[in-house]
């Protein structure tokens, strides 16, 4: 209620303009007194003095206004606050609906030291004054979901468990910008991403530690299968040693651990790649029956896995099943694969001859066949000549080998 109305209510039925200020009690001083004085001076036609008294009454009733500072009412403050929240909500919505391209962000990351705080805010969708990691809403939700999944157990889930530190930024970029498109994943598992990143960097011990923990904490079969598959790869490459000349040596202890991890992966979710890699593990361990079985299972799921079919041909070779081995290699040749497939098959056959000197002369015939289709005539001719010079190669295979040599001679003349 305005102070003028309050004065009139206090004065009751009397005319506020005719009341003498001395009639008011002590509690009615201040604005009431100056207002009545102003009325009396107005009746006396002393306009300037009357206006001064009314101004004094208004200043006393509204002291803040007289000081030159105007308070912002709560409704106005709330409107400003709602406006700011609306702008932030629109910005975040656009950030989620139209993500930045990860490759573009990788280039921007390399130039981050030359960019201002505001440029980093626009690129990332949030302030990033430094490189220290701060838990995001997605990470917080993942942490809460894991805690609720423990059914009341007193297990503390730390943020570094959810997202182990990875020196390279590619995993962080996937987490931020992989929301839509082909790489879109609702429940992105930071541990699996970090484990793969550590493996690619060659830190296999750290990758194994991260992926083992991820496999134990996985809440879906698919995530468990991913974790075990990554764990198997980490074990395999930890024991993998590339030698001069393109051949490799293997730590069979790590190969055995990789095989166990692949078995756990296919229990959770059968995948052709896991079956194919498992067949290779068993081949390296000398368990040719299981190697053949797992390789055939992979091909039943995906018949276009050329490297698995080459592995199967290798398994047949060491078992002495030369016709089956030839059929496997020839099936790959008819598919006209990339040159890398031929090169991988040739190197695997060279490893067989290195580890078993003189026991598998048919490997030379297969090397010659692959090299011929790859276009390396000198390597093909050398391998076939070694094959024909070996004892007990078989009449039919000898005839075929000589035909291939004649074919190469014809091609050489045509060139």
CATH class of the domain at 307-315 and 322-415: Mainly Alpha
What is the chain-wise order of helices and strands? HHHHHHHHHHHHHEEHHHHHHHHH
Strand order of the largest sheet: 1-2
**Radius of gyration over C-alpha positions, nearest whole angstrom:** 41 Å
List keywords for this structure.
mainly alpha; two-stranded antiparallel sheet; 415 residues; 22 helices
Characterize the structure shown:
The chain is mostly helical and 415 residues long. It has helices at 3-10, 31-43, 47-61, 63-66, 74-97, 102-110, 117-124, 137-149, 159-162, 170-177, 190-200, 204-217, 221-238, 252-268, 272-285, 288-301, 306-318, 322-334, 339-355, 362-374, 377-388, 395-414, and strands at residues 240-242, 248-250. The chain has 22 helices and two strands. Helix 11 (190-200) packs antiparallel against helix 12 (204-217) and helix 15 runs parallel beside helix 17. Mean pLDDT is 75; it is low at 12-28, 64-70, 123-133, 151-171 and 177-186.
């Amino acid at each position: 209620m305005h102070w003028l109305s309050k004065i009139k209510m206090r004065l009751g039925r009397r005319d506020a303009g005719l009341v003498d200020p001395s009639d008011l009690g002590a509690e009615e001083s201040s604005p009431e007194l100056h207002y009545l004085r102003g009325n009396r001076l107005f009746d006396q036609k002393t306009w300037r003095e009357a206006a001064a008294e009314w101004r004094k009454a208004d200043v006393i009733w509204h002291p803040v206004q007289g000081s030159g500072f105007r308070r912002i009412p709560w409704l106005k403050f709330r409107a400003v606050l709602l406006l700011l929240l609306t702008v932030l909500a629109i910005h975040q919505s656009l950030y989620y609906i139209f993500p930045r391209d990860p490759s573009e962000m990788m280039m921007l990351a390399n130039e981050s030291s030359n960019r201002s705080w505001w440029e980093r805010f626009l690129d990332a969708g949030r302030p990033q004054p430094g490189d220290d990691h701060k838990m995001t809403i997605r990470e917080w939700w993942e942490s809460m979901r894991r805690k609720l999944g423990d059914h009341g157990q007193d297990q503390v889930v730390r943020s570094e468990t959810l997202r182990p530190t990875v020196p390279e930024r590619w995993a962080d970029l996937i987490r931020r910008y992989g929301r839509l498109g082909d790489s879109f994943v609702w429940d992105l598992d930071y541990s699996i991403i970090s484990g793969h990143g550590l493996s690619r960097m060659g830190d296999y011990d750290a990758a194994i530690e991260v992926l083992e923990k991820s496999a134990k904490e996985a809440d879906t079969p698919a995530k468990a299968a991913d974790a075990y598959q990554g764990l198997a790869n980490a074990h395999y490459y930890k024991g993998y040693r590339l030698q001069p000349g393109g051949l490799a040596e293997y730590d069979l202890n790590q190969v055995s651990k990789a095989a166990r991890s692949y078995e756990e992966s296919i229990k959770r979710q059968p995948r052709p790649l896991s079956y194919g890699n498992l067949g290779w593990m068993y081949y390296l361990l000398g368990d040719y029956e299981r190697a053949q079985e797992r390789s055939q299972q992979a091909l039943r799921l995906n018949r276009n896995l050329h490297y698995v079919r080459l592995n199967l041909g290798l398994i047949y070779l060491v078992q002495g099943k030369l016709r089956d081995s030839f059929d496997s290699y020839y099936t790959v040749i008819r598919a006209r694969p990339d040159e890398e497939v031929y090169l991988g098959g040739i190197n695997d056959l060279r490893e067989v001859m290195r580890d078993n000197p003189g026991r598998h002369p048919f490997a030379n015939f297969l090397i010659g066949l692959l090299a011929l289709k790859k276009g390396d005539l000198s390597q093909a001719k050398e391998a076939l000549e070694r094959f024909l010079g070996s004892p007990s190669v078989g009449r039919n295979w000898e005839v075929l080998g000589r035909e291939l040599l004649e074919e190469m001679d014809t091609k050489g003349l045509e060139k």
